[in-house]
Design a protein that fits this description.
Elements lengths: L4 E6 L1 H18 L5 E7 L3 H11 L4 E9 L10 E5 L9 E9 L3 H11 L5 E9 L12 E5 L5 E2 L15 E4 L1 H5 L2
Helix pairs in contact: 1-2
The structure holds 1-O-pyrophosphono-5-O-phosphono-alpha-D-ribofuranose and magnesium ion (MG).
Pfam families: Pribosyltran (PF00156)
Pathway: Purine metabolism; GMP biosynthesis via salvage pathway; GMP from guanine: step 1/1; Purine metabolism; IMP biosynthesis via salvage pathway; IMP from hypoxanthine: step 1/1
InterPro entries: HGPRT, Hxn_phspho_trans, PRTase-like, PRTase_dom
Amino acid sequence: MHEDIGKILLTEEEIKARVRELGAQLKQDYAGKEVVVIALLKGAAYFATDLTLAMDMPVKIDFMVASSYGNSTNSCGNVSVKLDVAEELAGRHVILVDDIIDTGLTLEAVCCMLQQHKPASIKTAVMCDKADRRVNGKSADYVGFCIPDEFAVGYGLDYAGNYRNLPYIGVLKPCVYART
Ligand code: PRP
Ligand code: MG
């Protein structure tokens, strides 16, 4: 285990097993449909890769870099897009993939933006759900694990850009973020 990690929340084996289950579920739910999986970078890089491999069906993959910058009365109005989708979404079934739903603002805003492309449907898949942190009513359609409100890193989750490539999800030792 990395020296900055205090405890492991989800082991590599638990993550792999759950991603396989979610992939099988999506394969069943989207059979025969034209699917575009959109990964929200950077956090979703690992989950979206493993999930689409586990889906084992024809899908298109696309990427977005978008982040929310706080509350707004218009949920589409609080997101900054640094890289937009390139794939045609109209009439297609979109699965928006992220590493975590926290306040819910990012998924709410990005879903709102994607609706403007007139897809046949939009659903969301996240590896982790920190439900205690939600500020809106947003929920993800496919959830890997519900996790407590602790400083989790790994499998895409970062602290100051680090720890994303840990193959497990762990809680950062408080002394690490107290240093800054
Ligand atoms: C993080 C995380 C989710 C989002 C969740 O992304 O990857 O995308 O925040 O937070 P929310 O539910 O409160 O909106 P971030 O914007 O930090 O960028 P990153 O994916 O590059 O780490
Ligand atoms: Mg993110």
